[in-house]
Write a structure and sequence with these properties.
heterotrimer; A mainly alpha (about 300); B mainly alpha (about 350); C alpha/beta (about 525); A: about 300 residues; mainly alpha; ABC transporter involved in vitamin B12 uptake, BtuC; 13 helices; B: about 350 residues; two-stranded antiparallel ribbon
Chain lengths: ~300, ~350, ~525
């Protein structure tokens, strides 16, 4: 495997959890809900994904556990913010704190255990092509799934009635309600979808990125995913670009260290966080762009009158 | 069956008091269930967690030591959240305040005067304010989301501290441990009694009193509430949203910085890679549990401090993970937010009505 | 449907004989302690324009929402063409053939016209085909629409067309219209009436909600009048006078305002000199070269359709947004464009914004605290050395409450607990209590019951007669003619010269509302 090829491969593996978490949150925010608990859903997904794989010996079942874990926490979030109209920002924070605690408690038993890696699928004939073979056709299932989700979300949001309803609910929940759309139901579904994606993103970390359980292994990726959604101005294809850009930034540190760059490792580790801030500033400066694209009801409570 | 919310005409003052208590009760019940699932005797576990730490004098002192930073940070955060400014990076401001305050005792260890400590505290406050000013500036100047920027800066501050204590600030006589030199006596906050409790606790008390007065009695406190509840009305009153963002971040950053340097100077006496068990995040829970009211925060701070001690106690005597603490804290915040709904709404379970006949 | 005569003499018979489409019997709806509908019955027939009259808060909107399936009644039954039905969602109402045109539009600003319409239709039609239908139906009814336009970019008049076309595409048998002309120029309203006539001729029933009595008399065949949640009367509006209808609505005689003589010519107290401002957001209107002078002793009104720059102008006048040129706003001879709102209040100005809750008052704060909101910097002694004197604030609250007849269920409640009319009396009273030299009011009686509206309008006139300059921004022409000495019209950020009210006709104001540059035409709507 050549140098560039391996770099590209690591970029893809670094970008995939960000992409998975962010594409889910994008749908959630399009429906007008701000779930800041991505980090919490991810880390519980990571630990339960790992646990599921250990218990059954199958990384795929592990991934399903991760997905279910994310949805479970999302359901909790949905109940509080949609049924009890609790403050979405605070509830998202609570979800993150609870998730980090739960994951730490559950994960204690798994520290130091070797994990089970999600297998790479080799598409016969294609994966052996030089250079592009392993990069494009030798990835694991979740990588393909993440790309399919971007295409799928893009199609559903802008080409189908379901997507129109999601966007309508995010734009003006009062009007949607007046037209007879069940705002709460649409939002529940969106929140659950976001939870499933965040759970899978966590599962990807403990089943593919570094197949093991490490306390706090999400390391702020859930928050970076939230920033990516803002960066994408709520559009799936820009999200794809953003996630791969951040994957590249995240991977830079390993290669820089491997090549003996004389920068303290802490500064390299801080790069993705600093990059997040810079990207947020750059996109937010353009207030017209962000204001036109921000779902108008984002974070607003909704109580239907009956 | 359907869950229905009916908006109250005004917010219920009874529920404002009852809701945190209800949340606490629900957390205890859930905790008992959790312990039972973990194969523990729930009563014994809850006793170990919440009562045992209150039975010894040393642990009562430890309670104060842990409550003080939580309260200091949380009263600052209360101003943020009341004004609808979302600073969730207090952990970073705490860390950077600790770093800035430690400049003197680490870089100039020979500087031992009565001025040392006050200067350290001031620099700690300034460091926290500086770290808090960054997200405020980015929000005001560029409209960047303060939730995300303030949180990212937590990681940056922690990595910076990590680099300092492993690199330039590592104690030359420290056998290569990642620690700074120990502070000299002049740089240490004095104990209040014969034990671990130190002067930092008084800062927390002062902050609670000062913030109570500011929030209840002054125009500034009025401004905080107005801008938080109705920004447009705040603008109509002639208050500036941007200035409020800066004020809230500087205040909460400064208090977090003070908490940081107090912790380092009073409890740890040197810089280490990890100087906080997540005080900056736990303080978010303290702020909400205390209903963003300084007095409430004072009580809530002790409660959350107790959860730290309980976690340690449960680890020692029951062999439970100390991560249980974080689960308890997370659950508590969830229940607080859920119960707060009762302040503005009545909740009813109704059966779907078929409009076929008259009702009584 | 046998009813195909196009224009029977109104009032020749009490009731048209069309098929009964929708009947409501004994509808009751309770919100907390308030009975919004109390045993309400209503019969709607094909080919009939049925007016539903009543004051704000009489229960019209609640009834309409029940008919449209957006609310569930606590008791009572609905019958569609004689058969009992349960309408538990707007989708079910649409399936029956009931369409609705909302007063506060139920449109999605970020979506296109076609997408907005698609949301109200059953799924399955590709957007491209729908766009074609929108073009043809809207042309057909004289309501031209561009299906690909984004709603946020469209003026209010066009937005209402979207609502109407959306409704028409459902091919409804009954159309409910909630205050449809409140956002239209008189000319646009005439166009709407033609459309309505055509629809009834096609056998459609229309439930027409309004409080504009003249237009109800003109176009409606039958009227149901509600008061305090109950039906008080059914009648043929053509047989009634506007005065008798008003009495039925309000329940007592509506007294005329006492205008009094205008005080002798005095110096201008508020002057705008070439005031311009770029839009301050993607959905905002630019103000262009506005000149206006309001003297002490007079009430000047600015008429206009919503969204033509009224809000932007109010923000600049109040100082919530500062003018680029300090000389563009002159208050009592002082160039003040660069000054903030607190400073302008100290100069003797008072301001009342359009939004009561959230702009003029903080919903979750008590009335006494809401007094501090606008008077903390006006030298009333509420703030000393940074500390608040809440005792004084409570005494001021008592004074305003009794002087302006603000009714509340208990002492010093939160602002959100007050009814619209009482809160508006409070918000205006809070400013009048200082006897401001210049008062700027945006929509003084929007959504306020007739009693409170009359009181507020009288207070505005009285203030001006004491020598103050009063500027009223309003979309309600009746109100403008009641209070104004001079009238200017705002249209897309341009302001026409103020002319004496007695010299202006509604028709001319309507033309001015439709756009200055276009002169007589409304050609821009077709574009």
């Amino acid at each position: 495997m050549g140098g560039y090829e391996s770099i590209l491969l690591t970029v893809i593996t670094a970008a995939t959890p960000l992409l998975l978490a962010a594409i889910g949150e994008l749908v959630v925010e399009r429906s007008g809900v701000l779930n800041l608990g991505v980090e919490g859903m991810m880390i519980v997904g990571a630990v339960l994904g790992f646990a599921g794989a250990q218990a059954t010996g199958s990384a795929y079942i592990g991934a399903l556990c991760a997905l279910g874990a994310g949805m479970g926490l999302a359901l909790l979030f949905g109940f509080l913010t949609l049924h009890l109209v609790a403050n979405q920002v605070a509830t998202g924070l609570a979800l993150t704190l609870l998730g980090l605690g739960l994951a730490g408690m559950i994960g204690e038993a798994f520290v130091g255990q070797p994990g089970i890696r999600l297998e790479r699928l080799h598409i016969p004939g294609l994966s052996t092509l030089p250079f592009i073979g392993p990069v494009l056709f030798g990835q694991d299932l979740l990588v393909y799934l993440s790309l399919a989700l971007v295409a799928g979300v893009s199609f559903v949001l802008f080409r189908t009635r379901a997507g129109l309803i999601i966007r309508a609910v995010g734009d003006n929940h009062g009007s949607a309600h007046a037209l007879g759309v069940s705002v709460i139901r649409v939002r529940y579904l969106a929140v659950l979808f976001g939870g499933a994606c965040a759970g899978l993103a966590g599962g990807y970390l403990s089943l593919a990125y570094t197949p093991q359980w490490v306390e706090g292994m999400t390391a702020g990726r859930g928050w970076i995913a939230l920033a990516l959604v803002v960066f994408s101005t709520w559009r799936p294809l820009r999200l794809l670009a953003g996630a791969y850009l951040f994957g590249a930034v995240g991977i830079l540190q390993f290669h820089a260290q491997a090549h003996g760059v004389a920068i303290p490792s802490q500064f390299l580790t801080a790069l993705p966080y600093l990059a997040t801030i810079i990207v947020l500033v750059m996109i937010s400066r353009n207030r017209v762009l962000t204001r036109i694209n921000t779902p108008a009801c984002l974070g607003q409570p909704f109580v239907p009158d009956r | 069956m359907r869950l229905e919310l009916e908006k109250r005409a005004e917010h219920s003052r009874t529920m404002a008091v009852l809701s945190p208590l209800l949340a606490l009760l629900l957390t205890l019940v859930s905790g008992a269930i959790m312990f039972a699932l973990l194969g523990q005797d729930p009563v014994r576990a809850l006793y170990t967690f919440f009562i045992e730490p209150l039975t010894a004098s040393w642990s009562l002192q430890e309670l104060v030591v842990k409550a003080a930073p939580l309260i200091l940070i949380a009263v600052g955060l209360a101003v943020c959240y009341l004004s609808n400014t979302w600073n969730i990076g207090a952990e970073g401001q705490f860390t950077f305040g600790a770093i800035a305050g430690s400049l003197l005792p680490i870089m100039v260890p020979g500087f031992e005067t009565p001025l040392t400590l006050p200067l350290m505290l001031l620099m700690g406050i300034a460091g926290g304010m500086l770290w808090g000013a960054i997200p405020a500036f980015l929000k005001i100047r560029f409209g960047a989301n303060e939730i995300l920027t303030s949180l990212m800066l937590v990681y940056v501050a922690q990595l910076f501290l990590d680099w300092l204590v492993r690199g330039p600030w590592r104690d030359p006589e420290g056998f290569n441990f990642p620690e700074s030199r120990l502070f000299s006596d002049a740089a240490i906050l004095q104990p209040l009694a014969d034990g671990r409790m130190h002067v930092g606790a008084l800062f927390a008390l002062l902050a609670v009193i000062a913030m109570s007065v500011i929030l209840m009695k002054t125009l500034k406190g009025f401004e905080v509430r107005v801008l938080g509840q109705a920004p447009r009305a705040g603008q109509f009153a002639g208050f500036s949203r941007n200035k409020m963002v800066l004020f809230a971040f500087l205040l909460s950053g400064g208090l977090a910085g003070l908490a940081g340097i107090s912790e380092v100077s009073g409890s740890i006496n040197q810089l280490t890679p990890v100087i906080s068990p997540g005080y900056g995040f736990t303080a978010i829970i303290v702020a909400f549990l205390g209903r963003l009211n300084p007095i409430g925060i004072f009580i809530a701070g002790f409660l959350l401090a107790l959860s730290y001690l309980g976690g340690e106690a449960a680890q020692v005597s029951l062999g439970l993970s100390d991560k249980t603490t974080r689960v308890f804290q997370g659950m508590l915040l969830f229940y607080v937010l859920a119960c707060d709904t009762l302040i503005l709404y009545r909740i009813r379970l109704t059966r779907t009505f078929a409009p076929s006949g008259k009702e009584a | 449907m046998q009813d195909h005569e196009t224009n029977p003499p109104p009032g020749a018979e009490t009731r048209r004989s069309g098929e009964v489409l929708l009947e409501a019997r004994g509808i009751t709806k309770q919100f907390g302690d308030v009975r919004a509908n109390d045993d309400v019955s209503l019969v709607l027939r094909a080919g009939e324009i049925h007016a539903l009259l009543g004051e704000n808060g009489a229960g019209k909107s609640t009834l309409v929402k029940i008919l449209y399936g957006a609310l569930e009644p606590n008791a009572g039954t609905l019958h569609w063409r004689g058969a009992p039905v349960r309408i538990s969602s707007p989708a079910e109402a649409r399936a029956l053939g009931i369409g609705m045109v909302f007063q506060h539009f139920s449109l999605f600003e970020a979506l296109t016209v076609a997408e907005n319409i698609a949301l109200a239709l059953p799924g399955g039609t590709p957007l491209r085909d729908l766009a074609k239908r929108i073009r043809s139906v809207s042309q057909d009814y004289g309501l031209a629409l561009d299906p690909d336009a984004i709603v946020a970019d469209l003026p209010v008049g066009i937005r209402q067309r979207i609502e109407i076309v959306r409704c028409l595409l459902q091919e409804p048998k009954l159309i409910i219209m909630d205050e449809p002309t409140s956002v239209l120029t008189p000319q646009e309203a005439d166009q709407l009436f033609l459309t309505l006539e055509r629809l009834t001729a096609e056998g459609c029933a229309i439930l027409y909600i309004s409080h504009r009595l003249e237009e109800v008399k003109r176009i409606c065949h039958h009227a149901t009048i509600m008061r305090h949640g109950k039906v008080v009367m059914e009648c043929d509006p053509a047989q009634e006078t506007a005065g008798s209808l008003a009495r039925l609505m309000v329940g007592s005689a509506v007294h005329d305002l006492k205008r009094g003589a205008q005080v002798a010519e005095s110096a201008p107290r508020l002057e705008l000199r070439g005031l311009s401002a770029p839009p301050d957001g993607p959905f905002s209107v630019a103000l262009q070269d506005i000149d206006l002078s309001v003297k002490g002793g007079e009430v000047v009104a600015i008429a206009g359709i919503a969204g033509n720059g009224q809000g932007e102008l109010f923000d600049l006048l109040s100082g919530e947004r500062r003018a680029q040129d300090s000389g563009a706003i002159v208050i009592d001879g002082t160039a003040s464009g660069h000054l903030g709102i607190t400073h302008r209040r100290r100069q003797g100005c008072g301001f009342v914004p359009e939004e009561r809750l959230g702009h003029g008052a903080v919903p979750g704060l008590r009335l006494s605290e809401n007094i501090v909101l606008t008077r903390h910097g006006t030298g009333d002694g509420l703030v000393r050395g940074g500390m608040l004197d809440m005792g004084l604030a409570r005494r001021m609250e008592q004074r305003i409450k009794s002087n302006f007849d603000v009714r509340m269920s208990h002492d010093d409640p939160e602002a959100r607990a007050l009814s619209g009319g009482n809160l508006q009396k409070f918000v205006i009273g809070r400013e009048l209590d200082r006897t401001p030299g210049v008062l700027v009011v945006n929509q003084p009686t929007w959504g306020v019951d007739a009693g409170a509206a009359a009181l507020i309008r009288q207070e505005l006139i009285d203030l001006s007669r004491q020598g103050s300059a009063v500027l009223v921004i309003s979309q309600d022409l009746d109100e403008i003619f009641e209070v104004a000495d001079r009238i200017a019209v705002i249209s897309r950020g341009h302001l026409s010269p103020a002319e004496p009210a007695v010299q202006l006709t509604r028709e001319r104001i309507g033309l001015l509302m439709g756009g200055l540059e276009e002169g007589q035409g409304k050609a821009h709507h077709a574009a």
